[in-house]
Amino acid sequence: MLLSGAMLYSRSQDLAFSDTMSPPTTFARLPRLRAGYLFASLLLVSVSSMLLAGYKARAWQIRAADSYASRLTSEGLTIAVEPLFRDDLAAVVFDKNDIVTRGIIPLAVAIFNGNDFPVKVDADTAELINEDDRRHTLQPVEVVTRVFQKSKKGNWIPQPIPRVSTGEGKNEEALMDFEHKFLGGKVIPAHASGGGFLYFAVPASDVTSYIAASRLYIPDVYRDDNGSKMIFFEIELKPSVEAAPAPQRK
Prior knowledge:
Layout: E1 7-11, E2 14-18, H1 30-52, E3 70-74, E4 77-83, H2 87-93, E5 104-113, E6 119-121, E7 127-130, E8 133-136, H3 140-147, H4 172-181, E9 187-188, E10 192-201, H5 207-212, E11 215-218, E12 221-223, E13 233-236, H6 238-243
Antiparallel strand pairs: 1-2, 3-4, 4-5, 5-10, 6-9, 6-12, 7-8, 7-11, 11-13
Helix pairs in contact: 3-4
């Protein structure tokens, strides 16, 4: 028995009761609705996974000065360097597992200022020296463009590398991270520490041997209070290479 004004609809064995005269479309095809929700959920998970797979900045902290094997002290200033000459070492600091394979060596520079005045180190004039081969740091945009471009692994990048501001493979998140960690012209306050990275293109089949035979020359160190120039630094990288942890077995 039906109440006045009520109708009973039957379609494909799906029953729905309505107390109005409106068509029963809203009440039918429930399995399709469930399939739609399932598809939307899977799509959301897929998009989220793609977003999570993007570049993520990794922390880098300066250690105590005496923990660096390659370091030099002069005029109240200690500069320590640490080359990340293997992919596994570079991947600890940067979210990319083939930076060295692509021909880029990040070189950490830690500066410990024991003076009563701030100090500035010019990154652009620093040189990686290996016999007659002298190399300046690349700018972060050059590094990111090269590291994230679509190319076969194992192709060493020749010098000089063209200076570019845009290009295939540019990754904004990575660029921000590489720029933030770049030594640039950072000023180290009095009785404080600071530093950053230099990025060198090293076209050698045996990177370890090349870096071990190299030294970092830093000619331009200044007092930031009056602009007067301090002594230059020239630091051998071999002690740092020899002190590096052994590669982990896969």
